[in-house]
Amino acid sequence: MKVKILIVFVIVYILTAFAWLTFSLLNYANTDYNLKNNVLMAGLNACTLQVMQNAKNGKLGNDTTQEYYLQQLKIDVDTVRLKAFVQDRFNGNYLAEISQISKKQKLVQLFINPSKLEDLELERFQQRNIWIYQSILLLVLVASGIYGVFYTIDNIYQLNKRQNNFLLSVTHEFKTPIASIRLMLQTSKNPKVKEEKKAELIENSIQNTFRLEELAENMLVSMQIENDKYQYALSEIDLSEMATQIIENQNIKGEITGNLTAGIRVQGDNFILRMVINNLIENAFKYSNDQPIEVNLFERNNQKIIEVKDQGIG
Predict the structure, then answer these.
(1) Segment among 23-27, 69-73, 168-172 with least mean pLDDT
(2) Which CATH architecture has domain 231-314?
(3) What is the mean pLDDT of the chain?
(4) Which strand (E) or helix (H) includes residue 250?
(5) What is the location of CATH 3.30.565.10 in the chain?
(6) Does the structure show a pLDDT above 70 at 1?
(7) Residue 260 DSSP symbol
(8) Would you state the pLDDT for residue 16?
(9) 208 closest CA partner among 190, 183, 186
């Protein structure tokens, strides 16, 4: 539970970091746009000063038929040479426009080339989209990684939980025959116990040791099956005889009734079938509230069926 809470905090932290990163990149795009726009505005002032300087030095020609004014200052220029100078000197960033004030007076206006502003706006738009798409892609990749880590941790957690439950179950299963063996051996030491009873107790103790051995084998097989390493040994099995033997061994736990049809044979793994039937009977005893259980073996519609009934609430 603590690990899951920690993972949630990590996810929230990463999402917050990505949101902040995306916001920072978008803010940088706006800052970069404003900076370049300010550079163009500063360049416009430089362009104006250079036009005035070159006009004063007579490098922009002279039109004797008209008077030209730039920012209220009279300058001597030729419109063709002026436009060419502004275009070539500043790489097309600025344009010169001439407007008529009066019959002999014209106003020179310098301004930023609209296409440059459009290019600048397009560049900002493309840059923002690229960063947004990169952020989304990176977020998806990180989210996939987080999901993979969470999925792996959850699998490990569930595996540990199953292993703990398995160990608890195995411990309980081992305690029962061990306690029975101890009790029967202690009872057989009593000099008041008759020899026939002692022999019966010893025989039951031996049967319980077989049960311990079977439990150990069950545990090993369960681990092999879970790791896909168990090699099934298929053979023809007398299921009726196997069920009879198992019931005889399990009778020490309680009363078992029912009917076993003789001569029923199946193809399967002897050990696995024995383990399954044992587990069914043990589970039935576990939930039978000390009541008898019923085991039936029969064949119906070409199917071999084994029934295990208990008196529990389920």
Answers:
(1) 168-172
(2) 2-Layer Sandwich (3.30)
(3) 83
(4) helix 239-250
(5) 231-314
(6) no
(7) B
(8) 80
(9) 183
Q: From the CB of residue 43, how many other CB atoms can be counted at a distance below 10 Å?
A: 15
Alpha-carbon span 101 to 80, nearest angstrom: 18
Residue 17 burial (C-beta neighbours within 10 Å; 0-12, 13-18, 19+): exposed
| pLDDT per residue as tens digits for the range 82-94 | 889 988 888 888 9
Q: What is the pTM of this model?
A: 0.46
Local structure of residue 251 (DSSP, 8 states): G
C-alpha angle 108-71-86 in degrees, rounded to nearest 5: 45
Task: Indicate the residue type of 230.
Answer: Y
Q: At 189, which amino acid appears? A: K
Instruction: Give the DSSP per-residue string, 183-195.
Output: HHHHHHT-TTS-H
User: What is the DSSP secondary-structure string of 97-133?
Assistant: EEEESSSSEEEEEEEE-HHHHHHHHHHHHHHHHHHHH
